[in-house]
């Protein structure tokens, strides 16, 4: 199996502008993302949202790519229609003409450079191991990789393979030099991996690497009327991928109380206090640290 067609998608969220400016850079210097063994396509995910400087127009575009939604003619809001258009350009999902989709994102959370993988398998584990060997600060995030690809709602799952480059912290609608640089470096390492993978020239990789697997999301504390009654505790603020032990505070209530992590397992946070998730009152993801075997 070889990768023949790669798509780099930028601006899936209209106010995550790092990817859009990388796209503009690469459009003027396409050789930077070209490799001998495969073709590369650039695609702006949500240009209309970018024009109005918002995450999305009607709904989050990166939640529209489950197969059942792509096939549902009754879904006709802007992002549903845009998802169906992208599915025709890059897919169709399940029989995709695009072998690998790399979707570029940024976050307001202190996650650093993160490689988010929604599926399992030798290609993914080798990719993660290679990237970490070249860029050790990268965190590998296994995002609901137990699901079938058809169930995933992420844009990158339109490809036969798909990953997300997620880098932060950076405010929405802002360019930050270090985040721009890390996003570019991580993308370049992915493209280099594909070239080496295709030409059977991968270096010796470790037998396993550290990674984090999504467990669940936590919502901000709410009252019976759905009003917020607390906020993310300073104990976990900016502490993405750091451990939180049972009994340690995760929320500070406005009345002076706190809410602590329950259970008996130390977990790790990600997307802590992400600004984009306030519309759903999502406060943080909880992760489990794992040893990812490199197949």
UniProtKB/TrEMBL annotation:
CDD domains: M14_ASPA (cd06909). GO terms for cellular component: cytosol. Zn(2+) binds at residues 13, 16, 105. Its cofactor is Zn(2+). One of its GO terms (molecular function) is hydrolase activity, acting on ester bonds. Its EC number is 3.5.1.15. The keyword Hydrolase applies. It is an enzyme of class 3 (hydrolase). Keywords: Hydrolase, Metal-binding, Zinc. InterPro entries: AspA/AstE_fam (IPR050178), Aspartoacylase (IPR016708), AstE_AspA_cat (IPR055438), Aste_AspA_hybrid_dom (IPR007036). Residues 208-289 form the AstE/AspA barrel-sandwich hybrid domain. Binds 1 zinc ion per subunit. The active site is at 166 (proton donor/acceptor). The keyword Ribonucleoprotein does not apply. Residues 3-193 form the Succinylglutamate desuccinylase/Aspartoacylase catalytic domain. Belongs to the AspA/AstE family. Aspartoacylase subfamily. This is Aspartoacylase.
